[in-house]
Specification:
Number of helices: 14
Shape: flat
Distance between the termini: 71 Å
Order of helices and strands: HEEEEEEHEEEHHHHHHHHHHEHHE
Radius of gyration: 30 Å
Strand order of the largest sheet: 2-1-7-8-9-6-3
Number of domains: 3
Strand content: 15-25%
Length: 423
């Protein structure tokens, strides 16, 4: 015989910071934070997932007894106190929340009964707990931890062990194509000075060494091997991690060799979106052609993923002059990650999401410190000198206003323009 649940016994006694109350109804709001980006001449938008939305709690509560006035005072005091506190609801366990609204309602027709509308947010964790430097370092730590997982993802689809020689040669050619693409960026890394510096020289040496050893690097994978050949087994287990680690080091060298953080971001963004022209016959149905295509795709994905890791580090470490600039950088980074996430296995997917999330957190922390952008609407055009004094009491900022709004002459600011909000 099936017994019905005794719901009354399963309900907890509601309270906040020890102040008890009865619950008429409660609601909990979950969800995701998304921003929809719509672009000119594109039919489909880009929806940026910014992470889980803060959980919010709404409670319609009341106290009703001979001691209602004392219970009312205790609950009001609990809600007015700063900082997080413990909330217990009838169907929930202990919840650490921050109160932000407490509406008390009293009716003369209901003496001894006082109603409340209470609102809470989950306590979460504040940005103030972490410094910008720590958040930047956490991005680097997450990127370093992601490299082995990208290697595992690479091994799941790349193999030259037991294949015919031209499959190995094709994989080596794919590696060289990427090395040559990176080498073409060396001039860009030097910046406006064009003067050779030690990091760029070291990068050139590394690229040359890897270019010469491309066949050795390409000899890896999980293909069929000769059971009597112990050396082939060793090569299979050791070569693949070497490829991924070497290429991760190259991408790190690209970031560290750049003359400015802006150049590093520009170069790494190009590499994160680089898609070499395929020389494999896409219509061929032979086994070797299929192996060549799979290896080519695996190399491209691995290289782009490594570029993304360093791009995340560079973007998180960059300095931003305006909130809009920082928010745009965060959105661009999230969009670039989306392509490689679609082709990653479970572990690599989780690692890339972690790096993306850490980078977004670091950039968001910087957004908090930046002044918001405001739009000034004036009745007539006035010089930037006038506006610099009017907004900031600092005439020396006139050039910043003119440069920001791309005016032809600082004496003729447009009637509508953008500026940083005054402090």
């Amino acid at each position: 015989m099936e017994c019905a649940t005794d719901w009354i016994k399963t309900l907890r006694r509601a309270s906040f910071r020890g102040a008890a109350f009865h619950v008429d109804r409660d609601s909990i709001s979950y969800g995701r934070r998304v921003t929809v980006h719509e672009f000119p001449n594109r039919d489909r938008p880009y929806v940026e997932d910014l992470g889980e939305k803060a959980i919010s709690f709404g409670v319609t509560a009341y106290v009703a007894s001979d001691h209602a006035l004392g219970q009312m005072s205790a609950l009001v005091s609990a809600c007015r106190r700063g900082g997080p506190g413990t909330l217990i609801l009838p169907t929930e366990g202990s919840l650490l929340v921050v109160p932000y609204r407490c509406d008390r309602q009293f009716s003369k027709d209901k003496l001894g009964y006082v109603a409340f509308d209470l609102s809470f947010h989950e306590a979460g964790i504040g940005f103030g707990t972490f410094s910008v430097a720590l958040l930047e370092r956490l991005v680097s730590v997450a990127a370093e931890a992601a490299v082995p997982l990208i290697g595992s993802n690479f091994l799941s689809s790349f193999s030259t062990i037991g294949e015919v020689p031209w499959v190995v040669a094709s994989a080596a050619s794919g590696i060289r194509t990427w090395l040559e693409a990176i080498d073409e960026k060396r001039v860009t890394l030097l910046g406006a000075s064009g003067t050779a510096i030690a990091p760029v020289t070291d990068l050139a040496r590394s690229l040359g060494r890897l270019h010469r050893n491309a066949e050795d690097l390409a000899n890896a994978g999980r293909g069929a091997i000769d059971a009597g050949s112990h050396s082939a087994e060793v090569a299979r287990e050791s070569s693949a991690p070497v490829i991924v680690a070497e290429m991760a080091d190259v991408m790190q060298a690209v970031r560290q060799s750049a003359a400015t953080p802006e150049i590093a971001i520009e170069v790494l963004r190009d590499l994160a979106t680089y898609d070499p022209v395929s020389f494999v016959d896409g219509e061929a149905l032979s086994t070797t052609s299929a192996a060549e295509r799979a290896n080519e795709a695996a190399i491209n994905s691995m290289m782009r993923s490594n570029a993304l890791l360093e791009l995340a580090v560079a973007t998180a470490n960059a300095s931003y002059s305006t909130r809009r600039e920082a928010i745009q950088a965060r959105a661009d980074l999230a969009e670039l990650f989306e392509r490689e996430l679609n082709s990653a296995d479970r572990d690599a997917y989780a690692a890339l999401v972690e790096v993306r999330g850490r980078a977004a957190q670091a950039i968001s922390r910087k957004v908090v410190d930046l002044r918001p952008t405001i739009t000034i609407e004036a009745a007539a055009s006035e010089p930037s000198l006038v506006w610099a004094w009017r907004l900031y009491r600092d005439a020396q900022l006139e050039g910043d206003l003119a440069e920001r709004n791309r005016v032809r002459h600082p004496a003729f600011m447009p009637a509508i323009f953008e500026a940083d909000a005054p402090r």
